[in-house]
């Protein structure tokens, strides 16, 4: 008995699928346990969709097709040729970021000679190709490709169809470092891999060729741990068609389709137990087994989300450059996020305005005054709304509690936040993350430092007056008005960055909780890269765009032209991320809201 390999696709949502009926080839998304047809193409038996991914990082998925010997992209309705292969013995084994440069690459195997080759892509162009090794015994097949040892490099899993031996190849980029043999097993077919138990390690999924039994091998690094049989063995009319986190709970699920009726459903896996979920609307389509491709989706934790921000990788990705080389540190917190590497490339936040919605800013501070935003359309102190934006004399910002232009600090908080973001590089005091950016002071406190201003109006003001980033190191009551304002910011490609807050809770508080849809939520780590006890965690929903930054023992600016060390809280972590977003936007001002979020999540480093 043989089984189809899982049909993997690799777009922003790795649960998408390709399916066909007698007339059409269609691209489906799984959303709310329904199969949604995103696009259809006239079926041509000579063509095949190889991969779906945003190759040129313009925010739109591109389709990689094969037409007999030719490989080409379909992007925005236009064909972009990649290559024509003269030797049809060459077959694609995997597509993924094999060399760590954030572009997708192609792994090939010659089914006659046994040669293994690697194509390095640069967006939609073939940059180079090389034959890396030859395994002349064709019984050895590349059965899977994943980052099994969590070192950032994709590793190869080989299986011998004759002897039933299994081996890992631990890779350093495209170079083999060592091979490790693991348990041999006969009578079982490897269906794929995924994190089935939530330990952030890839496990192997097998199916028995006689009983239909499904078994999971828990992998620890590159050694086999516990082997677990799932409690039901479906009959052979049911085929495994995909492995992905269909129910968005942080663990990999198993997609099945009935070969005769087309009925489909998935097993929602939770700690190696499963619940069957029926999918609707596949109709007469059958999920296709096209060339498998690896989706390097970011790893999510219910505690630390997508991990510690890595400014060097985020900015390199934003401008499609090679990873940045290390640069000596200026301070532990700046170094932790690899920010000096970005400065060395000339990206310092220039041209970007960051709104700081807080308790006001000391705009006379020597480390801040050169970076305070000035409204170009307003004449100071003439009592006239010169730019007709609805605010009189809003030369440097506005107070949304007192409804006037008093942005002076009601407490030290806003000035402390601002120093982390954009304290000037002037050999005095500290240096902010985006030290060439402009700070737009928007105060939401009254004279008694009560946080009672109109936050929604402040957000809309920031968007309408040119801010690209909004920092909110605050808590606020949920309201439709506030949610609509944050959605408005996202629609204008303005990035809201919000502190997760300091309750030690299992998920972010408002308004950071909106980061499942809009903006970014930020938790705090200490000097040792450990999640602080006070920081609210990310929660179980992988849609929560939650990252980490330093938030303990921070030195920053305070009113009175002074500095203070020992600051702690997610209020200090959020401005580090706001600064990194400003660096990204200064490097590539065309980045959209969704692109910024995706790049930050994909470039995060796991902790713990």
TrEMBL record:
Matches recorded under SUPFAM superfamilies: Integrin alpha N-terminal domain, Subtilisin-like
Keyword Transmembrane helix appears in the UniProt entry: no
Biological processes per GO annotation: proteolysis
One Gene Ontology MF term: serine-type endopeptidase activity
Domain of life: Bacteria
Peptidase S8/S53 domain boundaries: 349-603
UniProt-listed InterPro entries: FG-GAP, Integrin_alpha_N, Peptidase_S8/S53_dom, Peptidase_S8/S53_dom_sf, Peptidase_S8_Asp-AS, Peptidase_S8_His-AS, Peptidase_S8_Ser-AS, Peptidase_S8_subtilisin-rel
Keywords, comma-separated and alphabetical: Hydrolase, Protease, Serine protease, Signal
Annotated CDD domains: Peptidases_S8_Subtilisin_like
Active site: 358 (charge relay system), 413 (charge relay system), 571 (charge relay system)
Hydrolase recorded as keyword: yes
Similarity section: Belongs to the peptidase S8 family.
Name of this protein: Peptidase S8/S53
Organism whose genome encodes this protein: Leptolyngbya boryana NIES-2135
Lineage: Bacteria, Bacillati, Cyanobacteriota, Cyanophyceae, Leptolyngbyales
């Amino acid at each position: 008995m043989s089984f189809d390999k899982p049909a993997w696709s690799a777009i922003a949502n790795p649960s998408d699928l390709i399916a066909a009926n007698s007339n059409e080839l269609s691209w489906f998304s799984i959303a709310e346990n329904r199969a949604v047809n995103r696009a259809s193409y006239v079926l041509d038996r000579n063509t095949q969709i190889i991969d779906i991914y945003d190759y040129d990082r313009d925010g739109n998925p591109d389709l990689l097709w094969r037409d007999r010997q030719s490989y080409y992209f379909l992007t925005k309705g236009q064909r972009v040729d990649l290559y024509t292969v003269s030797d049809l013995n060459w077959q694609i084994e995997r597509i993924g970021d094999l060399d760590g440069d954030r572009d997708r690459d192609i792994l090939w195997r010659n089914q006659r000679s046994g040669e293994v080759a690697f194509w390095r892509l640069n967006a939609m162009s073939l940059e180079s190709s090389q034959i890396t090794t030859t395994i002349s015994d064709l019984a050895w097949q590349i059965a899977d490709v994943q980052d099994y040892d969590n070192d950032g490099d994709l590793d190869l899993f080989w299986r011998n169809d004759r002897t039933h031996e299994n081996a890992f190849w631990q890779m350093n980029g495209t170079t083999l470092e060592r091979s490790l043999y693991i348990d041999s097993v006969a009578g079982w077919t490897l269906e794929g891999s995924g994190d089935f138990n939530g330990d952030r390690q890839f496990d192997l999924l097998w199916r028995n060729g006689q009983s239909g039994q499904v078994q999971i091998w828990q992998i620890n690094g590159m050694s086999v741990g516990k082997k677990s049989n799932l409690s039901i063995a479906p009959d052979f009319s049911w085929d495994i068609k995909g492995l992905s986190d269909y129910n968005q709970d942080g663990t990999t699920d198993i997609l099945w389709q009935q070969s005769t009726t087309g009925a489909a459903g998935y097993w929602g896996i939770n700690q190696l137990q499963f619940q069957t979920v029926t999918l609707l609307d596949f109709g007469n389509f059958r999920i296709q087994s096209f060339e498998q491709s690896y989706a390097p989706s970011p790893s999510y934790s219910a505690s630390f989300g997508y991990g510690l921000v890595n400014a060097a990788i985020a900015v390199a990705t934003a401008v499609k450059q090679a990873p940045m080389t290390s640069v000596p540190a200026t301070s532990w917190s700046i170094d932790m996020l690899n920010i000096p590497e970005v400065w060395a490339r000339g990206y310092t936040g220039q041209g970007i305005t960051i709104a700081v919605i807080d308790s006001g800013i000391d705009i006379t501070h020597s480390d801040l005054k050169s970076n305070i935003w000035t409204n170009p359309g307003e004449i100071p102190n003439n009592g006239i709304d010169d730019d007709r934006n609805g605010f009189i004399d809003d030369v440097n910002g506005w107070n949304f509690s007192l409804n006037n232009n008093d942005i002076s600090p009601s407490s030290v908080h806003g000035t402390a936040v601002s120093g982390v973001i954009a304290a000037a590089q002037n050999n005095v005091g500290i240096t902010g993350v985006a030290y060439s950016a402009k700070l737009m002071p928007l105060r939401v406190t009254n004279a008694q430092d009560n946080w009672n201003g109109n936050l929604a109006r402040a957000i809309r003001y920031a968007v309408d007056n040119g801010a690209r980033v909004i920092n909110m190191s605050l808590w606020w009551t949920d309201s439709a008005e506030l949610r609509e304002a944050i959605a408005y910011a996202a629609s204008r490609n303005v990035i809201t960055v919000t502190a997760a807050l300091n309750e030690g809770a299992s998920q972010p508080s408002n308004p950071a909780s909106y980061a499942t849809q809009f903006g970014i939520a930020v938790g705090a780590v200490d000097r040792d890269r450990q999640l602080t006890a006070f920081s609210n965690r990310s929660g179980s929903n992988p849609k929560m765009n939650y990252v980490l930054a330093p938030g303990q023992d921070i030195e920053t600016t305070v009113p009175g032209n002074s500095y203070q060390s020992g600051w702690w809280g997610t209020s200090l972590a959020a401005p580090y991320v706001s600064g990194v977003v400003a660096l990204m936007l200064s490097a590539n001002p065309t980045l959209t809201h969704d692109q910024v979020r995706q790049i930050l999540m994909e470039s995060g480093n796991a902790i713990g």
